[in-house]
Backbone:
């Protein structure tokens, strides 16, 4: 079993996507103005179910920070790319929390924190891809999945920030985080994750 701090980080990594998807789903189904793939996710932050969506991003962002510091950091083999990946993930977590604080009502600030989240996470994925390519610290499956999600992020960035590209990017990030946290959890129980 991993140390208590690392286990806490893993639990945070497992909880972040579950909490986000639960609260996002409540907000999306409860807001009659929101249309999946036609609206930006942040439109929910100023709608009739704003409290649920804003709580989703604030809590998920907050859980991402200990996941990066306590679970991902010790799982990686070190080096500059691994350190940058963790720092950028923490930064992405902070930006995600700020998305729930500076809603679309704050226009320019909301745009900055939204783009900050996506760009910091995209560069983090590049750094994870780099370090995992050379260390294979989390297994081949996670390494290839990380490269794939990074490639998706690059393509979506080139296509531009539209409701569909934003939605796909968020779903890809959520899935990546859930897979990595699950792998770390299973590895901590001595299950064969490779």
Residues:
């Amino acid at each position: 079993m991993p140390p208590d701090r690392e286990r806490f980080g893993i639990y945070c990594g497992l909880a972040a996507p579950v909490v986000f998807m639960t609260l996002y789903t409540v907000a999306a189904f409860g807001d009659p103005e929101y249309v999946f793939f036609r609206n930006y996710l942040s439109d929910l932050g100023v709608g009739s179910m704003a409290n649920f969506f804003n709580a989703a991003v604030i809590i998920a962002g907050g859980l991402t920070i200990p996941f990066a510091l306590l679970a991902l950091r010790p799982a990686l083999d070190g080096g500059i790319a691994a350190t940058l990946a963790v720092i950028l993930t923490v930064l992405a977590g902070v930006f995600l929390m700020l998305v729930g604080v500076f809603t679309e009502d704050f226009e320019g600030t909301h745009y900055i924190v939204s783009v900050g989240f996506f760009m910091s996470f995209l560069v983090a994925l590049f750094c994870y891809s780099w370090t995992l390519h050379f260390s294979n610290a989390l297994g081949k499956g996670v390494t290839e999945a990380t490269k794939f999600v990074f490639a998706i992020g690059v393509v979506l960035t080139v296509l531009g920030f539209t409701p569909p590209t934003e939605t796909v990017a968020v779903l890809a990030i959520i899935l990546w985080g859930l897979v990595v946290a699950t792998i770390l959890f299973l590895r901590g129980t001595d299950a064969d994750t490779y």
Observations:
- The radius of gyration is 16 Å.
